[in-house]
C-alpha cells in the first residue's frame, strides 16, 4: 500500500497543483486549504507526510508548520516556498524546497521521510532502482546489479544533476579513505552504463566531466 500524503495548498497560484503528479506515482493524496483545515483532517486520518505549499498560499508557512509540529511532533513536514523566499533553518519543517522544481524532485525528497518499504524503490526520470532486489529499469532495459553497482547508482540517483568528484565518489562507494587507483571506479561506471544506457559508448544519462567527475543527467 502506497504512502498517504496530506497536501496543504491554497488557490493563489498560476501553476498546477502537485496532487496530480503525486497521485500518478500511486500515493494517496488528501488536500486541505489551510493550516486549520489540515489540523482538523489530522484528527481523522494520519498521513505519512504533510506537504505545506506555502507558495500557493502567499505565506511563509512558518506558523502552519509550527502548529502541525506542536500537535504531531513525529509527523514529517515538507515546506514549499516561493521563488526568492528565504529558507529559515529554524522553521518546523524537515525539508524546505524553493520554487521552481520538478514534481520528480519533490517525490525524491519525500521518499526518505516515508516508511522503509517506500525507500527501497528509487525513481528518478526514466531510472527505477529496486534496492532490495537489486534490479534497475531504464526505458526498455531491465538488469540485475551487483551490490556495489546498486550502491553506486543509488548515490547518483540521490544527487541527480550534481557533479560527483571521482575521488570522493570512490571513497563513499568503497567506504575507504584511500583513493589512489581510480580504474576500479571507471570499470564500475562502464558496467553501470551498460545497464542503463541505450548506447554505453555514447551515454546520455551518466556523463563524464573530464577533470571533475561524473553527473547523472536525469530528474
Mass-distribution shape = elongated
Percentage of β-strand residues: 15-25%
In the CATH hierarchy, the third-tier topology of the largest domain is known as Rossmann fold
What is the N-to-C order of secondary-structure elements (H for helix, E for strand)? EHEHEHHEEHHEEEEHEHHEE
Low-confidence stretches: none
Provide the spatial order of strands within the biggest beta sheet: 2-1-3-4-5
* Rg result: 20 Å
What distance separates the N and C termini?
25 Å
CATH superfamily of the largest domain, by name, is Response regulator
The average pLDDT score comes to: 88
Q: What's the architecture of the largest domain in CATH terms?
A: 3-Layer(aba) Sandwich
Structural class: alpha/beta
Number of E-type strands: 12
> What is the CATH level 1 assignment of the largest domain?
Alpha Beta
Characterize the largest beta sheet: strand count, sense, and whether it forms a barrel: 5 strands, parallel
Number of domains: 2
Question: In percent, how helical is the residue content?
Answer: 25-40%
Number of helices: 9
Amino acid at each position: 500500500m502506497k504512502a498517504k500524503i496530506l497536501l496543504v495548498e491554497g488557490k493563489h497560484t498560476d501553476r498546477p497543483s502537485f496532487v496530480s503528479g503525486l497521485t500518478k506515482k500511486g500515493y494517496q493524496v488528501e488536500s486541505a486549504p489551510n493550516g486549520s483545515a489540515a489540523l482538523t483532517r489530522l484528527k481523522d486520518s494520519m498521513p505519512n507526510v504533510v506537504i505545506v505549499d506555502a507558495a500557493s498560499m502567499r505565506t511563509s508557512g512558518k506558523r502552519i508548520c509550527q502548529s502541525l509540529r506542536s500537535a504531531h511532533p513525529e509527523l514529517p513536514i515538507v515546506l514549499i516556498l516561493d521563488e526568492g523566499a528565504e529558507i529559515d533553518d529554524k522553521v518546523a519543517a524537515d525539508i524546505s524546497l524553493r520554487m521552481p522544481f520538478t514534481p520528480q524532485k519533490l517525490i525524491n525528497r519525500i521518499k526518505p521521510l516515508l516508511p522503509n518499504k517506500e525507500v527501497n524503490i528509487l525513481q528518478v526520470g526514466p531510472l527505477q532502482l529496486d534496492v532490495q532486489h537489486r534490479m534497475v529499469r531504464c526505458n526498455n532495459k531491465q538488469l540485475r546489479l551487483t551490490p556495489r553497482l546498486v550502491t553506486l547508482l543509488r548515490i547518483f540517483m540521490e544527487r541527480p544533476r550534481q557533479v560527483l568528484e571521482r575521488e570522493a565518489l570512490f571513497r563513499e562507494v568503497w567506504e575507504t579513505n584511500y583513493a589512489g587507483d581510480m580504474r576500479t571506479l571507471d570499470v564500475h561506471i562502464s558496467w553501470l552504463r551498460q545497464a542503463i544506457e541505450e548506447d554505453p559508448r555514447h551515454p546520455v544519462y551518466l556523463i563524464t566531466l573530464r577533470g571533475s567527475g561524473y553527473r547523472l543527467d536525469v530528474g
